[in-house]
Amino acid sequence: MGCAGSSQTKGDGTVKKIRKPKPWKHPQPITKSELMQMRDEFWDTAPHYGGRKEIWDALHAAADADLTLAQAIVDSAGVIIQNADLTVCYDERGAKYELPKYVLSEPTNLIRDG
After folding, report:
1. Are 105 and 39 in contact (CB under 8 A)?
2. What pLDDT, on the 0 to 100 scale, is given for residue 112?
3. 67-109 confidence digits (pLDDT tens)
4. 80: part of which helix (H) or strand (E)?
5. Which domains does the chain carry?
6. Residues 81/66, Cβ–Cβ less than 8 Å
7. Which stretches make up the DC-UbP/UBTD2 N-terminal domain (predicted)?
């Protein structure tokens, strides 16, 4: 499997489980379409932040999935979870991946379109 530093386990040997991000508030109320545009822009530019494209693709799929599927995606991609809400992760080579909360959940002040 590799050395202990490359596993997803915590010191007690348990795998760090993904959880939903804590509720958060955008600086000003935004619509669902504005949120989707922000997400699209992030994912379009994410590979330019460094790291491997296949890890960014896995994180994108995990961000859009339910918690059980997201866990399976990051486990199979070898993603090391620093923060259980996926805001900070690493790949097996040590590259850091930071995800803003707006790609992981909706703000508390979201305005529904229409």
Report:
1. no
2. 83
3. 999 999 999 999 999 999 999 999 999 999 999 999 999 999 9
4. strand 80-81
5. 29-109 (1.20.225.20)
6. no
7. 16-113
Q: Which residues pair with 9 in a beta bridge?
A: 15
> Residue 5 burial (CB < 10 Å; 0-12/13-18/19+)?
exposed
**Backbone torsion region of residue 7, taken as left when φ is above 0, otherwise alpha when ψ lies between -120 and 50, otherwise beta:** beta
Cα dihedral sign, 18-96-75-1: negative
Total residue count of the chain as it appears in this document: 114
Backbone angles phi, psi at 18, to 5 degrees: -75, 145
Say which DSSP state 9 is in.
B
